[in-house]
Amino acid sequence: MEFLQTCIDGLLFGSAYSLLALSFSLLFGVMKRINLAFGSTLLLSAVFSLWIDSLFSIGIFGIFFLMIASSALINIYVEKLCFYPHSGKYGATVSMISSFAIWMQLDEMSSFLLPDRTASFPSFLPDSFFLKDLFIRIDQLFLFLIAVFMTSIFFYVLYKTNYGLLLRGVSFDGELAKKLGVNSGKISSFAFAFSGIFGAIAAFLILSTESQVTPFFGFWCTLKGLVAMMLGGIGSLPGAIIGGLFLGLVESNVINYLGAEYRDICTYLILLFILVVKPGGIMGSALLRDERAASERI
Amino acid sequence: MSILKVDNLCKNFGGVQAVNGLNFEINEGEIFGLIGPNGSGKSTTINVICGLYQPSEGSIFLNGKKINGFKPNQCVDMGISRTFQNIRLFGDLTVWQNLWVAWKDDRKNQGSWFSNWFGKSESREKLISELLSFSGLETRANDLASNLSFGEQRRLELARAVASKPKLIFLDEPAAGMNKEEVKELRDRIFRLRDLGITIFLVEHVMDLVMNVSNRITVLNFGKAISEGDPESVQNDKAVQEAYFGQ
What is the C-alpha to C-alpha distance for residues A220 and A222, in angstroms, rounded to an integer? Predict the structure, then answer.
């Protein structure tokens, strides 16, 4: 029963990791853009919304929507500054390094808005109930449901809408799409805004279950998102979901049976193990497939 | 009525003059051939006109409008499209989706925000199904482009170039690697495009094809035009024979 309890806790919290990993995967895997500033974007949007809330008291739903909007805007700002000017083959490295600079800038802005280092974040539905012997927090259950819902929206947009189709075309071969008359700058901005929206929702859910925000939240997001994405397989969207859930399971079990101080050690050990045994990640053959496709000249 | 006019076009890469003072004019509805030995600047000419490179000198007019320095997507909006020497498709997407990505709406009746996202346009579906039957790929519409055979990929590329509703198509060696039967089919397709009123600019090494379909031919050597005229006079030109076979 104890094991079941930890697994449920892990899965519920892991769904937030999944959502975070999905928004990472859209940029890192689908668009092949390494945006190191993404975690800082999420932190800044949270801190900015809290700051506005302290001025005008916009309430928890106000914070939610403001976080989504500001995160999308900041992400477009990052895209226009770092990624738009450097397209093409060598652009990946250059834009990654410039996104590192933006990371610093965004973090400084956050610490400017967050002078007390730690601020409390409003939590919603801080309630819990027992299902037979299982203890379930309502906000975590809510988090899980929203994550499932947002994930289905994510896949719908990417695979069923017109922009999603264009986005997949641009991600396969941006230069070719441009030559065929696709406005790839617009599509890329759309992808950044989209991943910003999903990241902000994930960040909001995580922050409201933790009910506080610290200056390290940005870096924490980057780490968790990256690890979940790499566990699942870079470039594979179902992989990002599985990676997130798996990470949640591992963490909650380790905390329960070994103690909280072993959490990160075990996470990275498992990541290392998976990368050695299956370099593409659990679901991932995407990277290898791209290599193969390149050698087939298509 | 000339659709494309190229005036003293030059393109240098460092010290190499890939194209050097090229002049030609293409009339609406004709099939124009550009031939020449390897490295004579044929692909560079296409790339400059399609907006991939800036011309070093000279000007390009499309329907009397100067299009120097236009970006590739602006050139597509102006009604130019192309195929590539090496096949380039979206291997991740299906045949249908490949055509979809290249499809262009008329600038004037841009759809609403909602229909841009979710909408299905009837004219789009109609055009795409026409293109599928044009290229003989009806049965493979839902297969991934990377799973097509070589000949099918070539056909898809041609259909995709038509999907943006161009007035002028550049075909960069469309017959490379094809057998005789396939070249014949390709010839029929080129004629059908011409009958639709599309002007065709053909760069090709397969002489059978060029000599059979072109109305006029220009021969390039070392970036310069060495001969112009109808297929027969070009074939009999001394300068052309020297360029291809040596003295």
Answer: 5
Residue to substitute from B83, B87, B92, interface A, most A β-carbons within 10 A: B92
Task: State the DSSP code for B106.
Answer: -
Protein fold of B1-79+166-247: Rossmann fold (3.40.50)
Is some CB atom of chain A closer than 8 A to the CB atom of B141?
no
Q: What is the pLDDT of residues A215-252, one digit of tens each?
A: 888 888 888 888 888 888 877 788 888 888 989 998 88
* Nearest CA-CA distance, residue A192 and chain B, Å: 17
> Is B90 within 8 Å of A172 when comparing Cβ atoms?
yes
For residues B102 and B135, give the distance between their C-alpha atoms in angstroms, rounded to a whole number.
15
* CATH of region A2-119+140-295: 1.10.3470
Q: Which of the 8 DSSP states describes residue B60?
A: E
B11 and B196 Cβ atoms separated by less than 8 Å:
no
Q: How far is A146 from chain B (nearest CA, A)?
A: 23
Question: E-assigned strands of B206-245?
Answer: 216-221, 224-229
Does B92 contact A183 at a Cβ distance shorter than 8 Å? no
C-alpha span between B146 and B167 (Å, rounded): 28
Which tokens go with A212? 């506080």
Would you put residue B58 in left (φ > 0), alpha (ψ -120 to 50) or beta?
left
- Of the candidates A219, A207, A220, the residue with the CA atom closest to the CA atom of residue A107: A219
Q: What is the pTM of this model?
A: 0.79
Query: pLDDT confidence of B111, banded at 50, 70, 90?
Result: low
Report how far apart, in Å, the C-alpha atoms of B243 and of each of B106, B226, B233 are. Answer: 44, 9, 15
Q: What kind and span of H or E run contains A172?
A: helix A162-172
Which residues in chain B touch residue A171, judged by CB atoms under 8 angstroms apart? 92
User: Domain map of chain A by residue range?
Assistant: 2-119+140-295
- Tokens 């006019």 locate to B5
| Chain B residues with beta carbon closer than 8 angstroms to that of A298 | 87-89, 91, 145-146, 153
Residue B112 is predicted with a pLDDT of 56
Within chain B, all domains assigned CATH 3.40.50.300 are found at 1-79+166-247
**B176 touching chain A per CB within 8 A:** no
Q: Tell if the CB–CB gap between A162 and B116 is shorter than 8 Å.
A: yes
